[in-house]
């Protein structure tokens, strides 16, 4: 398990740990781990010069420990310190250490130095308000250059709980690496956190994490759905892997259900149907395995349903959605289905009373409509939004976008680490809905199907980027084959 802890939880854990340790020892361990990483990050440079930004609190103390260690190692270190009204005791000790050896202190950002590394120790989990004044100016100055940045605990200015920048018009230090202490934090993995934290390293500092208290959330990983990655029995047939029916495709929007259907087919569904609201095209020449039907008279009995891609908001769409929600078949609700649900309290009620597996796959705008708030509110706390939707509608939810957030009605939250901005192009969400439908059709339970689909979909995009297909110009149509490769590799690795 890769747990993610809220700031409040980290504070509790820290308090317990500090009580049984000599003063300053956690800060020294933080400084030790961070300086080891810093040394690695500058190892390729000759005579590297390192700038250490030290804030007024204990995050600044960590930074001063790093400065002292690097100075001792013979690396040229300059500290720029933003002192507060008072200095906490551990940080005061670290300041004495840094002053005692080999570290230069500057009053302002030295001009014309090409820093091999900037260590950001302005603010960590104690950030209380938006960066302003000197801290804001420093963050902006660092972000304007392409110096490598190592953030201590949390990039300064980022909310470790939510992954949003703190304050209206907020600014944060943009780091390539973040070394985070004691426990990993959700804000480093979703929303703006992914861009600002960069690669995250966890330094536990030898602190025991509470086995009994559940973490706020966890990162998605293969272990969470591995038990459903079976090798196929020799004696299987197409009926063994379920049917998926994709319902959607109003006028001009036929591509959306076709992309979902291709996603479902290549993620292993035995048979895939596309029931269209607009004229039935009869055939997808590029994927002739798909079977087309008219949505109006179509009976999807026996199929897992993916409903919504390109469906529009017509009376027919509403009727089809109502019928789908009324049945017991596993259901993936995407795109226009979500907009119809947002606009119809009856559908919300019906949804909350369903017993079959139900996955909701909103992007932030769809989530905003469903909750009756703005996108800014959703993105301001993505975990809270996903949790609220799952609880209200009693469904499994994935709030999509960088660091997709999955939530269950019981409050469990998982953040997905796979995927990249190559996915920020039309139709990739349709493919995700199709993959999810395929896993459900193959008998995966609702929650694991959503975890698996989101992980595989992101990993497919990562695989394409590694092959040079994207992020620029990656297309949704390329994802199904890549998802197929990822799934088969996983089955070989785990199930085989
Ligand atoms: N305790 C330990 O042993 C360990 C702690 N650890 C480390 O400590 C970090 C937490 O330390 P922390 O609690 O001191 O908070 P920190 O992030 O330094 O910020 C608070 C200071 O900033 C100030 N301030 C806040 N916002 C501001 C703003 N916008 N603009 C200006 N000022 C602002 C605030 O002042 P005030 O709000 O009172 O004005 C206060 O002075 C944690 O992330 C980890 O790195 C690790 O070493 C493990 C061991
Ligand atoms: N920057 C990003 N990083 C990672 N994943 C992303 C990013 N942007 C979009 N995605 C993913 O791409 C998909 C887009 O879905 P959606 O917005 O519904 O698109 P569409 O409706 O065009 O199919 C989602 O799975 C989302 O999580
Ligand atoms: K920091």
From TrEMBL:
K(+) binds at residues 59, 120, 156. Its cofactor is Mg(2+); K(+). CDD domains: YXKO-related (cd01171). AMP binds at residues 400-404, 429. Residues 221-490 form the YjeF C-terminal domain. One of its GO terms (biological process) is metabolite repair. (6S)-NADPHX binds at residues 58-62, 124-130, 153, 256, 310, 363, 430. One of its GO terms (molecular function) is ATP binding. Bifunctional enzyme that catalyzes the epimerization of the S- and R-forms of NAD(P)HX and the dehydration of the S-form of NAD(P)HX at the expense of ADP, which is converted to AMP. This allows the repair of both epimers of NAD(P)HX, a damaged form of NAD(P)H that is a result of enzymatic or heat-dependent hydration. Catalyzes the dehydration of the S-form of NAD(P)HX at the expense of ADP, which is converted to AMP. Together with NAD(P)HX epimerase, which catalyzes the epimerization of the S- and R-forms, the enzyme allows the repair of both epimers of NAD(P)HX, a damaged form of NAD(P)H that is a result of enzymatic or heat-dependent hydration. Belongs to the NnrE/AIBP family. Homotetramer. This is Bifunctional NAD(P)H-hydrate repair enzyme. The gene is nnrE.
